[in-house]
Design goal:
- The protein is mainly alpha-helical.
- 82% of the residues lie in helices and 0% in strands.
- Helix 3 (49-79) runs parallel beside helix 6 (132-159).
- It is globular.
- The mean pLDDT is 83.
Length: 273
């Protein structure tokens, strides 16, 4: 039943022209950064300026796409009563949530794959040598980022009463996590005692999936030097076994917990109908 719901959701979202627009925009920006970054002498080897630009593109655009896709489509189905109609069949709430999530995730995977594929094709035609290993790391982190924010968007879509509310909530969540969160952390680091700053920064990384993916990506591509000598102890710990395990565990939690919450919200909403 989960596969059937996922297939139906994927078919519906493929008809969306604005998702195609997002895909074309992502592909264009990925091509632009990759090609002109190489022309300026910055390649894919290690963590270069081009790698940083491509990472920032992922951290800005992918969360926005994922939040809008999940929030708007789910709230739209709820507003049109299509979601409630689906729940009249012998399926439970978590089955519906998983089916919707998988269908939407496949659509986002298609967009990200198209963007990276187009960039690689242009680089190949231009005769540019590309470190496939680095590109694959970017690609995997992009998929993980999309999966996490799509899971968060499921809560937004179920809680919002209308598409307009879902749109507003998605933009607020995106702006806070992507744009304002690091300023909040910087402000807190000034207030807390100096000996607590490192602990604050460490915790703040895992409380925001954007920062978690940013730091994890940089460490994986051996770019720890960008954090400076003041965070040397943090980077050494994060690069170690326990640090990498914690990154993995937190990534899984950011995927699972929002989906579980979405199932609970939907189940309660059905009970109140």
């Amino acid at each position: 039943m989960i596969i059937n719901i996922a297939r139906q959701q994927f078919t519906l979202i493929l008809r969306s022209k604005w998702l195609l627009s997002f895909g074309l925009l992502f592909a264009f920006l990925a091509i632009f950064i990759s090609y002109f970054g190489h022309s300026s002498g910055s390649g894919f080897e290690g963590f270069s300026r081009m790698s940083a630009s491509l990472l920032n593109l992922n951290l800005l655009l992918i969360p926005l796409i994922a939040l809008l896709v999940g929030g708007l489509f789910l709230s739209g189905e709820k507003e049109d009563r299509g979601l409630m109609l689906l729940l009249t069949y012998p399926v439970n709430a978590i089955t519906v949530i998983l089916g919707k999530y998988i269908g939407l995730l496949v659509s986002l995977w298609t967009v990200v794959t198209f963007g990276y594929g187009a960039a690689l094709l242009v680089m190949y035609i231009a005769g540019v040598d590309v470190a496939i290993g680095v590109i694959l790391k970017f690609y995997m982190f992009s998929i993980l980022l999309a999966a996490i924010f799509l899971a968060v968007s499921m809560i937004i879509g179920l809680v919002a009463k209308t598409r307009f509310q879902a749109l507003g909530a998605s933009l607020i969540v995106w702006a806070f996590l992507v744009l304002f969160y690091e300023f909040l952390v910087m402000g807190l680091s000034v207030i807390v005692p100096k000996q607590s700053v490192l602990a604050l920064l460490s915790v703040s990384i895992f409380l925001n999936p954007v920062e978690m993916i940013r730091v994890w990506s940089v460490l994986t591509m051996e770019g720890a030097s960008v954090f400076g000598p003041s965070l040397y102890d943090l980077t050494v710990w994060a690069n170690g076994f326990f640090g990498q395990v914690l990154f993995g565990v937190c990534g899984v939690l950011w995927l699972i917990v929002p989906i579980i919450i979405s199932g609970i919200v939907l189940k309660r909403r059905v009970g109140n109908e």
